[in-house]
Write a structure and sequence with these properties.
The structure holds two protein chains of two kinds.
Chain A lengths: L17 H10 L3 H5 L3 H22 L12 H14 L10 H7 L2 H6 L3 H12 L11 H29 L6
Helix pairs in contact in A: 1-8, 3-8
Chain B lengths: L2 H9 L19 H16 L6 H32 L1
Helix pairs in contact in B: 2-3
Classes of the chains: A mainly alpha, B mainly alpha.
């Protein structure tokens, strides 16, 4: 009778399809890594991104997340009245969605931090009545915007990396 | 030294997320957590093993801070030279 232990069976890790890990990485920062079995990496990246994002909100106030599409009631009314006045000018053309997005370019970077950006934008625009939460100014506003945008861009890097790893057996 | 007046301001009617953080006089210190966050995330993505991350993130954090300090020194010197012209 042989007492030798049998050779271990090769481990199979079932990887999610690349596009799914990409989208889940956007929904919850770091989830793309968790889904391919790299829990520690996912947890460290996810928690750090969310902490940076929250730090941005704390430094500059909720209004550091400011998109052209989620506005307070007063902002919407102001924009509508401005458009009514300008419509009398025959050369006036209403801004397209692309133009409106480019007027607030930091939101593009912030968007990649996930749905938390849209929630923060909505809360900022509706908190405290028609005007929404107040905007901060100068350096604290800029630094808050920067924190949230860097968090978003870092999450984009993590999304791309986790999608690549999921198609490469977990390796880079 | 820095923490005491900041803590005093924070407790005097500060509403987090509604008002900006009262860091008007210490804004440059906000560079530190941003650099720490970038270092940790970058090295978590880059390193093969997560064990390597704390050491490598600390190294890159120090390098970023030193780079920023050198850049600030060079810009300060440049401004002084331009002022004296």
């Amino acid at each position: 009778m042989s007492t030798a232990t049998p050779p271990p069976l090769p481990q199979r890790i079932i990887m999610p399809r690349r596009r799914w890990s990409r989208w889940r990485g956007w929904l919850v920062p770091g989830l793309g890594y968790v889904l391919i079995g790299q829990r520690a990496r996912g947890a460290v990246i996810g928690v750090t991104i969310l902490l940076m994002f929250t730090a941005g909100l704390l430094i500059g106030g909720m209004r550091v997340i400011d998109s052209a599409f989620i506005e307070s009631t007063q902002e919407r009314e102001d924009r509508a009245s401005q458009e009514r006045i300008r419509k009398s000018d025959s050369n006036y053309r209403a801004p397209t969605p692309v133009m409106r997005t480019l007027q607030k370019p930091w939101f593009i970077g912030q968007f990649f931090a996930g749905p938390v950006t849209l929630i923060a934008n909505y809360v900022g625009a509706t908190w405290g009545g028609d005007k929404g939460a107040p905007f901060s100014h100068a350096r604290v506003y800029e630094i808050g915007v920067l924190y949230a945008a860097v968090a978003g861009m870092m999450n984009l890097m993590a999304i791309i990396d986790s999608a690549y790893r999921s198609g490469n057996g977990g390796a880079r | 030294m820095i923490a005491f007046p900041l803590a005093q301001q924070v407790t005097q009617g500060f509403r987090p997320f509604w008002q900006p953080l009262p860091v008007w006089n210490y804004w440059y210190l906000l560079l530190l957590p941003l650099c720490a966050g970038v270092s940790i995330i970058y090295k978590s993505i880059k390193c093969r093993e997560m064990r390597q991350v704390p050491r490598e993130a600390a190294e890159i954090f120090v390098m970023i801070i030193l780079g920023m300090a050198i850049a600030a020194g060079v810009l300060l010197a440049l401004v002084r030279v331009m002022e004296n012209k």
